[in-house]
Amino acid sequence: MTLIAGVGGAVGSILVAFVGAALLSLVLTPLVRRVVLRYKVVDRPDARRVNLVPVPRSGGLAVSAAFLLMATAFLLVNGALGLVPVPSTFKPTGAIALLLGGALAAALGAVDDWFDLRARWQLVGQLALAVAAVALGIVIGFINNPFAGGVIRFEGPFAAGFAIFWIIGMMNSINWIDGLDGLSSGVAFIAAVTLGLISLTTQVGQPLIAVLCFALAGSLLGFLRWNFHPATIFAGTSGVQFVGYTLAVLSVLGTAKVAVALLVLGVPIIDTFWIIVRRVSEGRSPFTPDRSHIHHRLLDLGLSHRQTVLVIYGICVALAVLALVLTGATQLYAFLGVFVASGLVLFLPTRGGFRRPDELEAESYEPDEQHEPDERHLTSAAAVPVMADPPSVASARSVHRPPTVAPPSAVVPPTAAPVLAGRAPSPTDPDPPEPRHEAV
């Protein structure tokens, strides 16, 4: 990996964009949290979610606002002062696709956070976003040939179709990995940093794209302060839609960096592929919810919530290093290795149910003192509709929570049930019987 000659001149812009976006996200996230709590936009506990108390969602609005503000400001200042060179392939329509498309992706995701749209309508929105991006010039005209050198060129409808598939696939891959606190945000952070670094190499040579990538990384880092385990807010569909769309466009802007993005985001992309294969092979819809994602398998193997997230972070960092140091066919071989390994993890039998029940305790989540329980929060888990997996479901936190049946001595009188329903377990509560590990 060789850096471009003028990389020193871009470092200052990168630092300003990164730190500025991080501070904006850090400050905006608590503000967004207060708003969504006021309107009760929360993830309520059910059989497929990690949280046992309502946790606010739509945190992705803070991420998107931080990035869009910083990116827009930098593009305007750079246009006036020429801080970093603008690639000849970077057109104004590309900037519109990145900024306006990102804002629309976050807005459509926020609508789902508030109204729980059906998966089909979310897919329609994703398709509309991808088509609009292609109309504004976001197409994949070529990729590097991993075997014979040179490039493989795509023309006309195939180039446009490839870009549409890439954008929709990226949005859903980020969404499907959003199953644990801080998981999708951290994976996206690693991907944004990697795309930024590769943009500073002689292989790509686009410092402007690097600044935009680091602005996205900064907005994700500021959000992770609130989203890492135990999370006080979830990204929601607004977050996964925005992050997936923005990463997809940044990997295409200027010179296509699809191979790098494919490798560094190998975990969510391959997880998405194997999940679809598994469900279809079992005669089920690809959107059928279950606990077969890679993070569920790692949890079933005995890792804790935080350990599972950190292991996946480590895998993504290793893939990022490979993406930076490998070229051509070696990148493809690395991707295939992860492909096979992920398939083994997802298909090999595991020990079954949760072995670390403490990771699901409500005490691991910070209660909100200003957010008193109401009838919406006291609704039993059985009454909460379970959304299907993507195309993009808001933070599908699919973790099995075995049913707990209170012993006869602990039966609550009918008059006391409304008071106790939905509260977190207390240390003084009677011990439940041994949980039964049932398939969800």
Characterization of the model:
The chain is an all-alpha fold and 440 residues long. The chain contains 14 helices and 4 strands. Helix 1 (7-38) packs antiparallel against helix 2 (60-81), helix 2 runs antiparallel to helix 7 (207-227) and helix 9 packs parallel to helix 13 (329-347). The longest helix has 32 residues, at 7-38. It is globular and about 55 Å long. It starts with 6 loop residues before the first helix and ends in a 20-residue tail after the last helix. The model is unreliable at 349-440 (pLDDT under 50).
Number of helices: 14
Strand count: 4
User: How do the SSEs run, as a string of H and E?
Assistant: HEEHHHEEHHHHHHHHHH
Q: What is the count of structural domains?
A: 1
Question: Uncertain segments of ≥5 residues (pLDDT<50)?
Answer: 349-440
Q: Overall mean pLDDT score?
A: 78
